[in-house]
Design goal:
By secondary structure, this protein is mostly helical. The protein is 65% helix and 0% strand.
């Protein structure tokens, strides 16, 4: 099931998440958009985690860290 549009959806959700974080300052929506973007794996989804190159693993782990950071900012900055 190779779908070529997943890369475009992944990039679109990344752009949307960064827009929401930087310009709108809505960190919870940014976390949601970035998290949804992770569902659209831009790499080969049929490839197992252990068989992926290290740079692909690093990209996905950094993406997950950004989602956690946006979630943390959303909770921390809205705690008034």
């Amino acid at each position: 099931m190779k779908t070529p549009y997943t890369k475009f959806l992944y990039i679109g959700f990344l752009i949307l998440g960064f827009y929401q974080a930087i310009f709108s300052k809505d960190y919870m929506q940014a976390a949601a958009s970035l998290g949804i973007g992770m569902a659209f794996d831009p790499f080969n989804p049929d490839q197992k985690w252990n068989e992926r190159p290290n740079w692909q693993k690093a990209v996905l782990i950094i993406h997950l860290a950004l989602v956690a950071a946006m979630f943390g900012f959303g909770i921390g900055l809205n705690d008034k």
